[in-house]
From TrEMBL:
Belongs to the SF3B4 family. Residues 15-93, 103-183 form the RRM domain. It holds the Pfam family RRM_1. SUPFAM superfamilies: RNA-binding domain, RBD. GO terms for cellular component: nucleolus; precatalytic spliceosome. Keywords: mRNA processing, mRNA splicing, Nucleus, Repeat, RNA-binding, Spliceosome. It comes from Guillardia theta (strain CCMP2712). It is found in: Nucleus. CDD domains: RRM1_SF3B4, RRM2_SF3B4. Residues 187-209 are annotated as: Disordered. Gene3D superfamilies: 3.30.70.330. This is Splicing factor 3B subunit 4.
Length: 209
């Protein structure tokens, strides 16, 4: 039976997962029913504004054991709920540290059926994916894929391996293009991953740790 609490001081942090990128329509009941498919759920909590009662796009799901939580992340990360891919993380504090060092990749020539979950399952093999990625770019009106996406890693080594292994490889029957994305900071024509930029990004990441 579904139960929820706004204050769970005895929550088992090791068995609790962070669920991000949920829509306004998402409720504790919906998360409960969804993650019950992965394992025995003990508690669901979606923090809300005390005045507006609107949530900030994330919640927490506590399972019976740490193994159940890890299994849920493995099989349900990036599945879509209300059209958006859920982003799951074992850290239960709600303060998910994202280190953007500039190891950002552009994935092109994608088949329309390629979604965020398939990209995550494919590219997470090379390292830790950070930020709001993988992200498939879609037409805002139709929701159809534009044929390209972005993946950000926490280090250049992972991005380099992904490029070496996946550039030109077939995904859903079509050879994909994998390369560093163009920078958005006004550097015209400059891509992420340039060697002189890497040290700067790594130093910034160390300062945040």
């Amino acid at each position: 039976m579904y139960t929820s609490s706004q204050h769970v001081p005895e929550r088992n942090q090791d068995a609790t997962i962070y669920v991000g990128n949920i829509t306004e329509k998402c409720t504790e009941e919906i998360l409960w029913e969804l993650f019950l498919q992965a394992g025995p759920v003990v508690n669901v909590h979606i923090p809300r504004d005390k005045v507006t009662t609107v949530h900030s796009g994330f919640g927490f799901v506590e399972f019976r054991s740490e193994e159940d939580a890890e299994y849920a992340i493995k099989i349900m990360n990036m599945i879509k709920l209300h059209g958006q891919p859920l982003r799951l993380n074992k850290k239960a504090s709600g303060e998910i540290k994202v280190l953007d060092v500039g190891a950002n990749l552009f994935i092109g020539n994608l088949e329309p059926e390629v979604d965020e979950k398939l990209l995550y399952d494919t590219f997470s093999a090379f390292g830790v994916i950070v930020g709001n990625t993988p992200k498939c770019m879609r037409d805002p009106e139709t929701g159809q894929s534009k044929g390209f996406a972005f993946v950000n890693y926490d280090c250049f080594e992972a991005a380099d391996m992904a490029i070496e292994a996946m550039n030109g490889q077939y995904l859903c029957g079509r050879p994909i293009s994998v390369q560093y994305a163009y920078k958005k900071d006004g550097s015209k024509g400059e891509r992420h991953g340039r060697w002189e930029r890497r040290k700067m990004g790594e130093e910034k990441a160390e300062e945040r740790c």
